[in-house]
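**User:** Once you have settled down, spend some time on the protein underneath, comparing sequence with C-alpha cells, and judge whether sequence predicts the C-alpha cells.
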Amino acid sequence: MTKEIVPKGLQKETSDILDDTLTALIEGLTGIAASRREELALSVGHIFQGLRKGQFLTILSREWNQYKEKGKIRDDYQFSEQHKACLQELLDFLDKDLPDEITFSLLKKIFLVAATEKVSDRESLLPQQYLKICRKLSSAAILILIATYNIANNKEMTAKYRELTSAREWLSIIANESGLVYPEIVEIYEDELIKNNLLIPRIHDDKSGVVLRGLFRLKDLGLAICQYMENYENI
C-alpha cells in the first residue's frame, strides 16, 4: 500500500482532536444551560447525554495519552488511515449513538489495542470492522458475548457442560455468568449476537436445542473479537 504523505501543517495530534471535541461539547452544553428556562426543560436529556459523552471523551483522551507516554503507540501511527477510520468510528459512536459505559469500554479497548500494533498492523481492516460490529450491539448483548467467551475459555467449565444440548439450560448458565440473572433477559438479546454472526443459532424446529462446538456457541468471529479485546492493558 502506498504510504500517504500528509503535509506537516495539516497533521493534527489525536490528543488535540479529542481535546477540541471535548471543548466543543462543553461549549455546546454551556450554551444550552444559558438558554431560556422553557428551552432548558426540553434539553435536560440532551444535557445529561452530553455530560456522559464528556466523561467518556475524558477517559479516552487520558488513556490515549498514557499509552503514548509509555511508548505503546508509535508517533506516526496516529496519522495512519487505520487510526483515522477507527477514531472516526469511536467519535461517531459518542456523537450519534446513545453511549453507555459497557459498549464504550469495549470499543475503547479495541481502539487502543489496534493502536499498539501488537496484535494487528496498521494495514489491517479488522479493527475498524470489530468496532463497527460492536458499536451495533446493546450493552446486554456485550455482557452475553463476554460471558460466553469466559466459559469457552475455561477448560473446567467447558468440560462440565460438554454434553449440554438444552437451549433453556444454556440461557440459565449465561444469565448467571453475565450477571443478567434472568434467562428471559438473555433470550431477548441472544438474537443480536446471532444476527451479527457472533453466536451459533439454535437447532430444532422449536429452537429448544443448541450446539456448543467447543466454544459454548461462540462463533469464530465472536471468539476473535473477545481475544482481540483481551490484549488491552489498563495502564
Remarks:
- The two ends are 33 Å apart (CA to CA).
- Residues 44-69 form the longest helix (26 residues).
